[in-house]
Write a structure and sequence with these properties.
The chain is an all-alpha fold. It contains four helices and no strands.
Length: 77
């Protein structure tokens, strides 16, 4: 399931427990700046074999936003 992998990736990036990350959480509230967001997206691209357009990264504000973007790209694949 993409959400679990997304949360695992975020937890590794910010060095926190997966249970502390909720789907509605804002990335900035998790300590994720633009550089960390790019790293998370890169890791997820590798994990799922997809490519997130660079301009779409700025629109990723919450964990749910990341999940929706990945789901959309997986459906297009």
């Amino acid at each position: 399931m993409p959400l679990n992998k997304i949360i695992d990736t975020i937890a590794r990036t910010v060095n926190c427990d997966t249970h502390a990350i909720h789907p509605q959480a804002r990335l900035d509230s998790l300590g994720i700046d633009s550089l960390k967001a790019i790293n998370i997206v890169y890791d997820l691209e590798e994990e799922f074999g997809i490519e997130v357009p660079n301009e779409a990264i700025a629109d990723l504000v919450t964990v749910n936003d990341i999940e929706a973007a990945i789901a959309r790209l997986l459906n297009e694949k």
